[in-house]
C-alpha cells in the first residue's frame, strides 16, 4: 500500500537514488504538503479539453518501453469520470505495439504538453483496450475526426502532477498564429485609416488657412 500518491512513481529504487543525490528530504516535504493528485478536477479537465496531442507510454512484460504519439482534434482525450480518461483508437500503421504491451502489462503513463503556456502534465496509471463496447467507442469518437475508431483505450489515473516550465520552448499552432496575425492586421488597418483621416484633416486645415478671406 502506498502512503502518498507520489509513491506510485517514487519506488524504493527511486527513493534510494533521491537519498544518494540529496533530494529525498525535499520530496518527502513535497509529499506531505503538496503531493501528486489522483482526481481529475475541473482544471485538469479544462486543460485536457484544449489538447490535440499526447504521448502514451507502455512497456512489455519484460520491461521493453515504448512511447506512442496520440493526436486528434482538441478534446480527443475524454474525461469519463474523476479518475478515468478514454480516447478512441485507430489502426494507424498496424504495428500494434501499444496494444500488445497492454495485453500483458497494464502499467502506462500519459505525457501531455501545452507549448504556448509552457505547461506539462504527467499522468500515471493503468490502461486497457476495449474492443467490445460500441457505445463507449461511439462516445469517444470526436465529431471532427473523419476516421472510424476501431476500439477504445481507457486510462485509469493513479497519480498526476504538473512539471515546472524550465527548458520548455514555447510553440504555437497555425490557428493561434493566424488569429494573432489577423488581430495585428486589423489593428494595422485601423491605424492606417486613422492616419489617413488625420492627414486629410490637416490638409483641409492648411487649405482653409491659405484661402483668401
Using only CA atoms, what is the Rg? 26 Å
Strand order of the largest sheet: 2-1-5-6-7-4-3
Report low-confidence residues grouped into runs of 5 or more.
none
- Indicate the overall shape: elongated
Structural class: alpha+beta
- Specify the biggest β-sheet: 7 strands, antiparallel
H-E string: HHHEEEEHEEHEH
Percent helix among the residues?
25-40%
Strand proportion, as a percent range, falls in 25-35%
Distance between the termini: 98 Å
Q: Give the mean pLDDT.
A: 89
How many H/I helical runs? 6
Beta-strand segment tally: 7
Give a written overview of the molecule.
- This protein has a seven-stranded antiparallel sheet.
- By secondary structure, it is an alpha+beta fold.
- The protein contains six helices and seven strands.
- 18% of the residues are buried.
SSE map:
Elements: H1 12-21, H2 24-33, H3 42-49, E1 53-59, E2 65-71, E3 78-81, E4 84-89, H4 97-104, E5 107-114, E6 119-130, H5 134-140, E7 151-162, H6 174-210
Antiparallel strand pairs: 1-2, 1-5, 3-4, 4-7, 5-6, 6-7
In short:
The protein is an alpha+beta fold and 213 residues long. It has six helices and seven strands; from the N terminus they run H-H-H-E-E-E-E-H-E-E-H-E-H.
Features:
single chain, 213 residues, alpha+beta, 7-stranded antiparallel beta sheet, 6 helices, 7 strands, elongated
Amino acid at each position: 500500500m502506498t502512503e502518498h500518491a507520489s509513491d506510485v512513481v517514487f519506488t524504493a529504487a527511486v527513493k534510494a537514488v533521491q537519498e544518494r543525490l540529496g533530494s529525498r528530504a525535499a520530496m518527502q516535504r513535497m509529499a506531505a504538503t503538496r503531493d501528486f493528485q489522483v482526481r481529475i478536477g475541473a482544471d485538469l479537465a479544462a486543460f485536457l479539453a484544449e489538447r490535440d496531442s499526447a504521448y502514451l507510454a507502455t512497456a512489455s512484460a519484460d520491461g521493453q518501453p515504448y512511447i506512442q504519439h496520440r493526436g486528434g482534434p482538441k478534446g480527443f482525450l475524454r474525461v469519463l469520470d474523476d479518475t478515468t480518461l478514454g480516447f478512441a483508437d485507430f489502426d494507424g500503421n498496424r504495428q500494434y505495439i501499444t496494444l500488445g504491451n497492454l495485453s500483458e502489462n497494464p502499467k502506462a503513463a500519459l505525457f501531455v504538453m501545452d507549448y504556448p503556456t509552457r505547461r506539462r502534465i504527467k499522468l500515471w496509471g493503468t490502461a486497457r483496450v476495449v474492443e467490445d463496447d460500441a457505445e463507449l467507442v461511439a462516445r469517444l469518437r470526436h465529431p471532427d475526426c473523419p476516421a472510424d475508431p476501431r476500439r477504445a483505450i481507457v486510462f485509469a489515473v493513479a497519480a498526476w502532477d504538473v512539471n515546472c516550465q524550465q527548458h520548455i520552448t514555447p510553440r504555437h499552432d497555425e490557428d493561434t498564429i493566424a488569429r494573432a496575425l489577423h488581430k495585428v492586421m486589423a489593428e494595422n488597418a485601423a491605424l492606417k485609416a486613422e492616419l489617413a483621416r488625420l492627414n486629410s484633416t490637416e490638409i483641409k486645415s492648411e487649405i482653409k488657412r491659405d484661402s483668401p478671406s
